[in-house]
Amino acid sequence: MVNSMDTYLLEIPLEQTARNLALQFASEQANPQKGKRVYFNTLAVWAVNYFLEWMELETDINGGDSWHQIDRAILDVADLVLPGIGKIECCPVMLGETAISLPTVRENRIAYLAVGFAEPFDKVKLLGFIPAVEILEETEEISLTNLKPIEELLDYLDRIELAIPLLQGEIDELLSDLAADDPVQARVRENLQNKSIAEIVAILNGVYRSSEKSDWGYEGGKALAGIGASSGGLGGINRSLSGHQSSDIDTKVEAKMNRVAKKWMKKLAEIWGDGDDSALS
């Protein structure tokens, strides 16, 4: 994967073939408003695909819902498939708008990327992105001021791509080790099973970036369990399950997840190559 880019690449010219295709997709819609949305969604996906192909990333533009006639007629989607990783949602932003609207369909998204449009719509500008794991489920829009620079997108995707084969077996082993007859462990397993491996890697990357090495086990354990401070920790999950209130079980599960997270984070530190891992030894 290319690790650097020129600034001009962030401004993508829209070829006539792309605009013709967007017009074709738009003409299939039931009303002009829906057609306009499909038009800009199509161009946003085309532009992001152009950019990522230029940066030597594998894409599958035909594999997304936005390239399927029935799906784009029913849904408001602008997804681009990255094989083996997940989907990027390509969100059109018109000149003067200050936020991107998030779609209702969010499964298997690893990032949301803002694509800026201005008349005469012969080019677009890639404005920035946000990892999907940083967005709360109830969030409907993201301010452009909260976006990360496009320059960081390739590193983000590269880290996910590198980590997926490393953690595949580890995740399967953890799922088989979580006891189905224990309500807390069953809930943790459900949280993990509801995420793709790319999402799990992205979560750990967030911990990796935001926490001290000495805290990776604790913070990673919480993140893997699908809990945060607002849920009250493992005790919060525990108390929500049929009156089950054994703090001993909470402690055991927390210790298990901390050990797993510490082990995984150490492996990730080695393949991501961001310095020594002495804090984890």
Structural Rg: 21 Å
Low-confidence stretches: 1-8, 228-249, 276-281
Query: In the residues, how many domains can be counted?
Result: 2
Instruction: State the distance separating the first and last CA atoms.
Output: 31 Å
The general outline is elongated
The quaternary structure here is single chain
Number of strands: 7
**What portion of residues belong to β-strands?**
5-15%
Order of helices and strands: EHHHEEEEEEHHHHHH
Q: What's the story with the biggest beta sheet? A: 5 strands, mixed
Broad structural category: alpha+beta
Please give the count of helices.
9
Relative helix content: 40-55%
Strand arrangement in the largest pleated sheet: 1-6-5-3-2
Mean pLDDT: 84
Keywords:
281 residues; 7 strands; two-stranded antiparallel sheet; 48% helix; disordered N terminus
